[in-house]
């Protein structure tokens, strides 16, 4: 109990309200068993998570790129004094030049190319960078552009929103263990893949098993595809042919092809793998799309786990044994 109290006290020093809502009641041990602090530790973890989220959303200065611009402005003002050269020797202009100035300009160029391509000042910053050695006004012009970028609240709010959405997406990708299965009419293939995923510790998401909630099919697809991976089953459910051909070939259902494309767009090509049964036609040649044969021997299982592992998803192949 003392260790738990010490942990709470550590964060109370930072936030006096941290202790609110947390248990302060002593625990009684079951004879022969250790104290179980898991509920308390989970409560602390939830409290810390909420604290971090609120702190990051309320403090604009947490925007790393904006902090870099602030620092470059302050350093630039200092360099303007340290490496200032007055007009002399027949040269009619004063200017800033030196090793610190060169480094400053280089860092601004990196920032501009990485984060400011969507900003109206991008071209001007690029121009002053290219003119840094032969334009006496390059220093003043660059500093003015940095100040304009720094004062552009609309840009920083938009960038922060974009970062937030990216973090949310990454969180979805790393925190859940859901795998979406797109299928046709082959019930056996669907169940085989679902049971394989569950055996490996993943949650198989099959659309028709999810609650409708008054939503259309496409709305359900949008709602239930916040997953780490998707498996598309190309099974011989339809027959199709080109108009000049006489004999049809086995194809997957049209919804399967549609959802395959949708998921590649939403999750990225490397998070989607198609399992193709023997003799089933796949869409026209599209480079970068992952197709694997759904062989009867089950070698496809190892292939799926390898694809998952290659993109950083934790897999435990020993569960297949």
Strand and helix layout:
Elements (H helix, E strand, L loop, with lengths): L1 H13 L23 H21 L5 H19 L1 E2 L9 E2 L2 H17 L6 H9 L7 H13 L2 H23 L2 E5 L4 H13 L3 E4 L10 H8 L4 E6 L3 E3 L8 E3 L2 H14 L4 E5 L14 E3 L5 H12 L11
Parallel strand pairs: 3-4, 3-5, 5-8, 8-9
Antiparallel strand pairs: 1-2, 6-7
The CATH class of the largest domain:
Alpha Beta
- Give the CATH superfamily of the largest domain: Response regulator
CATH fold assignment of the largest domain: Rossmann fold
Based on the coordinates given, report the CATH architecture of the largest domain.
3-Layer(aba) Sandwich
Helix content: 40-55%
- How many DSSP helices? 11
Notes on the structure:
- The strands form three sheets. The chain has a five-stranded parallel sheet, with helices on both faces. A two-stranded antiparallel ribbon has the order 1-2.
- The protein is α/β, with parallel strands linked by helices and 321 residues long.
- α3 (64-82) runs antiparallel to α6, α4 runs antiparallel to α5 and α5 (122-130) packs antiparallel against α6 (138-150).
- Residues 53-62 have low confidence and may be disordered.
- It has helices at 2-14, 38-58, 64-82, 99-115, 122-130, 138-150, 153-175, 187-199, 217-224, 254-267, 299-310, and strands at 84-85, 95-96, 178-182, 203-206, 229-234, 238-240, 249-251, 272-276, 291-293.
- The two termini are 41 Å apart.
- The chain has three domains: 2-58, no CATH class; 62-154, no CATH class; 177-320, 3-Layer(aba) Sandwich (Rossmann fold), CATH 3.40.50.
């Amino acid at each position: 109990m003392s260790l738990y109290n010490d942990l709470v006290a550590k964060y109370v020093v930072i936030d006096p309200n941290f202790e609110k809502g947390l248990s302060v009641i002593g625990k009684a041990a079951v004879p022969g068993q250790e104290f179980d602090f898991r509920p308390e530790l989970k409560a602390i973890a939830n409290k810390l998570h909420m604290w971090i989220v609120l702190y990051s959303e309320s403090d604009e200065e947490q925007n790393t790129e904006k902090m870099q611009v602030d620092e470059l402005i302050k350093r630039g003002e200092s360099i303007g004094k340290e490496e200032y050269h007055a007009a002399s020797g027949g040269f009619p202009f004063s200017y800033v030049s030196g090793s610190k100035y060169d480094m400053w300009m280089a860092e601004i160029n990196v920032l501009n190319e990485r984060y400011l391509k969507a900003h109206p000042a991008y071209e001007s910053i690029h121009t002053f960078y290219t003119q840094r050695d032969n334009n006496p006004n390059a220093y003043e012009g660059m500093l003015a552009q940095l100040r304009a970028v720094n004062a552009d609240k609309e840009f920083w709010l938009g960038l922060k929103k974009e970062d937030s959405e990216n973090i949310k997406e990454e969180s979805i990708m790393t925190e859940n263990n859901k795998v979406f299965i797109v299928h046709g009419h082959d019930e056996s293939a669907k169940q085989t893949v679902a049971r394989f995923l569950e055996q490996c510790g993943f949650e198989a998401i099959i659309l028709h098993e999810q609650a409708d909630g008054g939503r259309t099919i496409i709305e359900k697809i949008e709602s239930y595809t916040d997953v780490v991976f998707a498996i598309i089953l190309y099974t011989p459910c339809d027959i199709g042919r080109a108009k000049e051909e006489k004999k049809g070939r086995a194809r997957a259902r049209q919804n399967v092809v549609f959802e395959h494309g949708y998921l590649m767009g939403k999750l990225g090509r490397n998070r989607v793998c198609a399992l193709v049964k023997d003799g089933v036609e796949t869409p026209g040649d599209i480079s970068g799309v992952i197709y694997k044969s759904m062989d009867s021997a089950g070698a496809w299982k190892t292939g799926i786990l390898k694809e998952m592992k290659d993109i950083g998803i934790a897999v435990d192949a020993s569960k297949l044994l």
